[in-house]
Amino acid sequence: MKVIITGATGLVGGAVVRHCIANEKITHAFVLTRKPLPELATDPKVTVVTHDDFSTYPADLLERLAGAEGCIWAIGGRATQFPDVETAKRVGVDYTLAAANAFASALAPRLPDGRAFRFVFCSGKYAEWEQEKSLAFLADTRRIKVRSAIVNAGVCPVLDSDLRRN
Fold it and tell me: Which residues does the UniProt record annotate as the domain NAD(P)-binding (predicted)?
């Protein structure tokens, strides 16, 4: 299986890359990043794809990612790590939706045998499904991590409430 990985320079994304390289079921990893990653560029199982603007996915970029059957999306962070909440929302919600939509429309239809394209959104501890709930700590971060726009976008099926913790 070929996968796209984002957030490779972060804690979670870096771990995902290492696990994918070690997993024999993953035949290739496209690491989508803003910065060159020379430490990964020499691995035959990895293609580092630099991309500056995660809000748009031009045809030539999508062509380079052709054959990927899934994406592990690990871009984000605490809202306090961004200049302001709007930037955190743009990165945590808008970029996620842009990628999911682009991959669903350009990559998923090209998969053989009717296979489904998988999009794994790495959220965070204490992420809150109820967007209007009063939260005592990390409120902006906890809302962004499960932003209803992502869940309700209809881009791909989302696990139902059986896995949501109250």
Answer: 7-90
In 14-147, DSSP assigns E strands to 28-33, 46-50, 70-73, 118-121
Question: What's the CATH number for 2-163?
Answer: 3.40.50.720
Nearest to 150 by CA among 121, 125, 128: 121
Distance in angstroms (rounded) separating the CA atoms of residues 38 and 13: 16
Q: Which two tokens stand for residue 126?
A: 């204490």
Do the Cβ atoms of 46 and 29 come closer than 8 Å? yes
- β-pairing, 2-6 vs 70-73, is parallel
Beta carbons of 142 and 88 less than 8 angstroms apart = no
Q: Would you say 33 and 10 are in contact if contact means Cβ atoms under 8 Å apart?
A: no
DSSP 8-state class, residue 108: G
Query: Taking the domains of the chain in order of start, what are their residue ranges?
Result: 2-163
Summarize pLDDT for 70-94 with one digit per residue, the tens.
999 998 777 678 788 788 788 878 8
